[in-house]
Amino acid sequence: MPGPIPVETRGVERTVLDLVGRAMGRFTMLRPGDRVAVGVSGGKDSLCLLHALVAHRRRAPFPYEVVAVTVEQGKFKAPIRSLEASIGALGVEWVVRDEPATLRLVADGVVHGCDVCSRHRRRALYTIAAELGCSVLALGHTADDCAEALLRNVLFNGRIASLPPVARSRKGGLRLIRPLAFVTEALTAAYAQGLGGGVIGCVCGDKESVRGEIREFLTLLRARHRGVSESITAALANVNPYTLFDPGLTKPGADLSPAFSDEP
Q: Which of 45, 59, 194, 208 is most buried (CB neighbours < 10 A)?
């Protein structure tokens, strides 16, 4: 079982657990008897997620299992096994598997982007979760990640899309959930720091990228305008197709009344 939590950390933990509970309830993320594979990358977000899901079991109205899963792609800044003691203290199983495709790219010095890593990692997580008999895969994407994904898709992919709180894999019944959808990275950083355990970064995080530029832009906006983060999160659940370029709404017989207004 995890050791005692420092007093100064309890407020952060309570806030994180409240927000996780809100996401769990609003999007019906878990069901009785679920076995949840938690993707653990070694960073603050995934470690916060793992601790939060273990702690949330004390609040949940039904039981569920938790197993930690890590994919080794040769890009950790420190040996990932250094987390073994802290993860073991949670009383959960921890499975670490090599991902051959990315490891070959690294070994051969082949230049590749984060999208390649992400695709291989996601495929590996799906496979491992299925092998472990898990019904759910939990990822540590935060409210900040959802906001960045929305802007990235609008600015560079020509679509309005983000990271859904709940999704289902295309090749089976595995549910993908993002319990930190309402939790900011400021909170995950404070949570991880309060736990006292080390975090292990990825070398990809040091590279310049569009994601990094968007993150800097949002950081600037948040510093200048209070409530920006909350507004973006609210917008993701407040979509009005009548104010967008939906060609289906211009077809004969389409109902335009919800969007009609006499106001200039």
A: 45
pLDDT tens digits, 250-260: 777 666 555 44
Asked if residues 138 and 53 have their Cβ atoms less than 8 Å apart, the reply is yes
Paired residues of 202 in beta bridges: 76
Q: 46 is written with which tokens? A: 């995934």
HEC assignment per residue over 59-118: CCCCCCEEEEEEEECCCECCCHHHHHHHHHCCCCEEEEEECHHHHHHHHHCCCCCHHHHH
CA distance 130 to 173: 9
Cα 181 from Cα 234, distance rounded (Å) = 11
Query: Hey, how many other C-beta atoms are within 10 angstroms of the C-beta on 125?
Result: 24
| Total-model pTM | 0.87
Both structure tokens of 74: 């040769």
CB neighbourhood size of 74 (10 A): 14
Tokens 């595995």 locate to 174
Question: Nearest-CA neighbor of 22 among 68, 64, 59, 47?
Answer: 59
Give first-to-last CA distance, the chain, whole Å: 62
Query: Which ranges of the chain would DSSP assign to H, the alpha helix?
Result: 7-27, 44-56, 84-88, 100-108, 114-131, 143-156, 185-195, 210-224, 228-235
Residue where the block lists tokens 């690294």: 106
